[in-house]
Specification:
With about 625 residues, the chain is of the alpha+beta class. The protein folds into 3 domains: about 110 residues, Herpes Virus-1 (2-Layer Sandwich), CATH 3.30.40; about 130 residues; about 260 residues, Neuraminidase (6 Propeller). About 30% of the residues lie in helices and about 30% in strands. The chain contains 10 helices and 38 strands. Strands 13-38-37-36 form a 4-stranded antiparallel β-sheet. Strands 14-15-16-17 form a 4-stranded antiparallel β-sheet, with no helix packed on it. Strands 18-19-20-21 form a 4-stranded antiparallel β-sheet, with no helix packed on it. Helix 8 runs antiparallel to helix 9. The two termini are about 50 Å apart. The N terminus is likely disordered.
């Protein structure tokens, strides 16, 4: 009886889950693939999130020009009530979908529970930061900021999670984990049908050895992976079949074209032969008539009949001769029809035919290869710029919970900052007398910038707008900077790396190793987690790791196909892996902490063009400057 009750309960739960999934699908925006946020319905009766409509309009210049709101599903246009208002406010004029919002609120009330109203990102909080949260993940039951949301969606383990808005009064919850009554720190995993008990792993060993009928309540990670692999197999299988069917269809079309051509030629020849036969029958009939006329004249006693017969014979012979001569001269007689199969060429085409490639990625070794996903692009242009921006170096700070990107613009002689507040992109600029070059973080809200032409190093406060704090003059011009300690920094100049104090005085200079010149143009540098200096040198086309005392730890200067062209920006991940961009090769390579090559991580195919500098934030997101743009990648 108990077993039947449990089975019925499971059936009811399955039906409820199926119903909830269908309702959720009905309440999902087709643009962002998430539950509607502030839903609005267009004239064509399709409903979207208001923010999604606004974002879609901005991708359609024709819509902005015609002052209409296009439907991304059926392409039907909706007129803008007040066309004089800014484009970003057009969607706000559309009436809200009260029914859809009511269904969302009802479902949320049926499937949610009261939880602590956290306003900060959980991931950032774990890292010791206080970043304001933007969305809620019901599967992980954590709030996430905008940056962590992108990471969350890029991760294979969480890309299918449906994120919800924090503004909801209640948040959707995931299926709660059932814990064992005897072992409260373990999760219930099995249903033993023999005794109708739910148990954890420990209970199954201790109390249920004799139970024969066991149901696993939740699939393991590997089982889910097998299921996902099976689904992927079916999709690829169907895709291969579709491609093959298309090719076979085209071959059948070629076959039909040849058969139609054969039918046309055969029909034409047959018609010509029938015409010739008809003409020959007429000739024979005329010949018989002449013969009969002559026979009659021969038996007649009248001489005039003989003369008429003679005249008729002469004229008939000429006419028939003319017809025969004309047919012989003007008519081309087809002798035979042949088909020559081009089997060699067809076989050659079939041998070269590629339906596609099945790609498989493997994870081997202790240093895992990283794969990039571009999540954002920031334009470095500002209204005050007089020339095309040339973003020379970049770093990222977290100021009062706001992630701020600081770059140097060499052509326009600005230090620039870019950040987002209240969901609005913002920027700031600090003009300098000469072109800035390298930039490095000094404190949580301060950076130091090298100005080589004027032999200066300036300190800038980031709040996140930029404020000039101080300027020191050095004995030479430096291109690159890296902070070693609160009282010293490394600076790359002409054929040297100098260790400076905070007043700009040279404590020691690193120039040679074993009587060999180490550097020519150390344009970029950084400090790893061991306090060693990593120097990217354009002139030596190498990456060198040196201690602050000047000892060489290792040097990466490959030759042949792996040779560097113009090594530029360099940075390290939390795990110690080294990332270096090669400007001319348009790649970002990954090195081990010991200077050994791992792989090309980002290439021009991933969207970078003439990359110059890079930095890696606390979340291991990579920011790369390409001309006037800053591209952000997540390494998965």
């Amino acid at each position: 009886m108990a077993r039947t009750s449990i089975a019925s309960t499971v059936t009811v739960l399955q039906m409820a889950t199926s119903w909830n999934e269908k309702v959720t699908e009905f309440l999902t925006c087709v643009i962002c693939q998430e539950l509607y946020t502030d839903p609005c319905t267009l004239r064509c009766d399709y409903t979207f999130c208001r923010k999604c409509v606004t974002a879609y309009i901005q991708t359609r210049p024709d819509a902005v020009q015609s002052k209409t709101i296009p439907c991304s599903f059926c392409r039907q246009d909706t007129k803008v009530p007040d066309q004089s208002r800014p484009v970003k406010e057009w969607a706000g004029q559309i009436k809200p979908s009260i029914i859809i919002q009511g269904l969302i609120d009802t479902q949320a009330g049926d499937t949610t529970e009261d939880i602590a109203d956290s306003q900060h990102c959980y991931v950032c909080w774990e890292l010791g930061e206080t970043t304001r949260a933007a969305l809620w993940c019901p599967d992980c039951e954590v709030p996430l900021c905008d940056r962590c949301v992108r990471t969350h969606r890029a991760s294979p383990d969480s890309r299918e999670h449906k994120l919800s808005d924090l503004s909801w009064r209640h948040r959707m919850k995931r299926n709660r984990k059932l814990t064992c009554t005897d072992h409260t720190d373990e999760q219930v995993k099995f249903l033993f049908m023999d005794c109708s008990r739910l148990s954890c792993q420990s209970c199954s060993v201790l109390y249920h050895r004799k139970c024969e009928s066991v149901v696993t309540l939740k699939k393991s990670k590997h089982e889910l992976k097998v299921t996902s692999l099976s689904e992927t197999h079916q999709l690829i299988h169907a895709n291969i079949q579709a491609i093959t069917e298309t090719i076979v269809k085209n071959i059948k079309l070629k076959e039909q074209q040849l058969l139609d051509e054969l039918d046309t030629i055969t029909r034409t020849i047959t018609d010509d032969i029938q015409a010739v036969l008809k003409h020959e029958e007429i000739e024979m009939q005329m010949y018989r008539q002449h013969c009969e006329f002559i026979d009659q004249a021969l038996v007649s006693d009248c001489e005039m009949d003989l003369y008429d017969a003679y005249q008729a014979w002469e004229s008939g012979a000429v006419e028939l001769g003319d017809v025969r001569d004309t047919n012989t001269a003007d008519t081309r007689r087809i002798d035979a029809i042949r088909f020559t199969p081009d089997t060699d060429n067809v076989q050659h085409i079939l041998d070269d035919l590629q339906l596609g490639k099945i790609g498989v990625t493997y994870q081997t070794g202790t240093c895992r290869k990283s794969y990039p996903v571009m999540v954002d692009t920031t334009d470095g242009w500002m209204e005050e710029d007089v020339e095309e921006p040339d973003l020379h170096d970049v770093t990222v700070l977290l100021v009062n919970g706001i992630q701020t990107c600081v770059v140097t613009d060499a052509k326009n002689k600005f230090v620039k900052s870019f950040y987002t507040t209240n969901n609005q992109p913002c920027h700031s600029r600090l003009p300098l007398d000469d072109s800035p070059s390298g930039v490095t973080q000094l404190k949580e809200n301060q950076v130091m910038v090298a100005v080589p032409d004027s032999s200066q190093i300036v300190t800038v406060e980031v709040i996140p707008d930029l404020v000039l704090l101080s300027t020191i003059t050095t004995s030479k011009g430096y291109y690159s900077l890296a902070v070693l300690s609160p009282s010293s920094l490394a600076a790359g100049g002409s054929a040297c790396v100098d260790i400076l104090d905070m007043t700009g005085d040279v404590l020691r200079s690193v120039t040679t190793h074993n009587s060999e010149t180490l550097f020519t143009y150390p344009a970029y540098m950084c400090v790893n987690n061991k306090g060693n200096i990593l120097v990217s040198d354009w002139g030596k086309t190498s990456v060198t790791c040196v201690t602050s005392e000047g000892d060489v730890v290792w040097r990466y200067a490959p030759t042949g196909g792996k040779a560097l062209s113009i090594p530029a920006g360099i940075s390290t991940t939390k795990k110690g892996d080294i990332m270096v961009v090669d400007k001319d090769a348009e790649t970002m390579i990954q090195l081990k902490e010991t200077g050994e090559y791992v792989s090309d991580v980002i290439t021009s195919q991933d969207g970078i063009n003439q990359p110059l500098s890079l930095c890696i934030d606390k979340h291991d997101s990579v920011l790369v400057t390409c001309g006037r743009e800053i591209k952000t990648f997540i390494l998965t």
